[in-house]
Design a protein that fits this description.
single chain, 128 residues, mainly beta
Length: 128
Amino acid sequence: QVQLVESGGGLVQTGTSLRLSCAASRGTFSGYGVGWFRQPPGKEREFVAAINWNTGNIVYTDSVKGRFTLSRDNAKNTVYLQTNSPQPEDTAVYYCAADKHPPSNLKPMSRLTRYDYWGQGTQVTVSS
């Protein structure tokens, strides 16, 4: 069983980049799909991006394409979400999650119900 620990959140001004980290504190991400989700104030949790750890394939939701970048460090068992040019509407609690059986087609990885393990979340606040 993998445990997930997010870090890197904070208060930033519009346009100031921020890098979020999701580390496997127990176990490894090998064989997993790892996704990033966010929950804006008063709204439902929504998909941001995901990676199939073994293939390296990555998928993004349309609203962050070209602004956010998901990457990984195999040696550190860590997945990163680089938020470039964040806007106030990106304000949310950001969660990472792990899917034990990631699909080869990444599109289903946008569904919250696929994921088996979740981190505690990290708050990102973007001020205008």
